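Final report, Chapter 2: Outcomes

The project's central promise was a pipeline that accepts a single protein chain and returns its three-dimensional structure in a standardized token representation, suitable for archiving and comparison. That pipeline is now operational. To close this chapter, we reproduce one record exactly as it appears in the project archive, with the input sequence first and the structure output second.
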Amino acid sequence: MLTWIHIENLCVNTSFLISLISTLAYWIHVIFPKNTKLARLGYFSVCISCISITLGLSLRWILNHYFPLSNLYESLLFLSWAFMTIQIILEYKLNNTFIGAVSTPVTMFTLGYSSFFLPIEMQKAEPLVPALKSNWLMMHVSIMIVSYATLMIGCLLSIMFLIISSKNIVSFNTNETKQMNTPNINLLNNLDNISYRIISLGFPLLTLGIIAGAIWANEAWGSYWSWDPKETWALITWLTFAIYLHARINQSWEGKKPAIIATLGFIVIWICYLGVNFIGKGLHSYGWIS
């Protein structure tokens, strides 16, 4: 008999399969950029996938009477939703298919990992522990995850910039001859600028999320900051992107140097988001790895 839980799982699995299709469409379009139909197929597929995961998360919210962000499984689903939603908005506003090309593989990974690699016990909804029974759960955790998704998309564009530029000799802000044709120079400049704009959008969200977390921590544990592993790495993440933006704004860095910092930031985000939870220690380990 088909139950609401089965429908929820069906929505998640459908979202994964459609994400696989969108990833293939975007990457084939990267190889054959003149085929605009593939880009439209990728974008349309992401929209359908986002609707599917939204239905799955909504069902989980309705069935369990709390916002689905209490454990690793729900967090990964919400991160996937954030990737898709931000990608849809950014690609529509900026008209750049490289955003989809770098975002969809990560979305597919997070959906696949949550659905097929996490134990069934970790996918089940459990009653909230007392510390999570707060309206701050929705505000703090959702903002943090949205900021992670935004920053990671910007970082992935910087990584793509490094990959493309490594095959050519390009000098930014110098009078040296650029040994590259004009379309490739324009492509790299475009990737560099879009990456900067997206990271500039994600950084204020990260700041707001950390502030909201500090207020919630004071209500729950009586201290704004406890140097918990998660809090420490959140600070490291904030400092990494603060350095990136400071370098871009005050020193007018462009090209490889800030892209390397953004690449480091991508690694730091994953350590903050997943890495410290595999330790199984700290105040932020509820429903994660123990």
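Archive annotation: The CA atoms of residues 47 and 88 lie 7 Å apart.
This record, like all others produced under the grant, will remain available to the consortium after the project formally closes.
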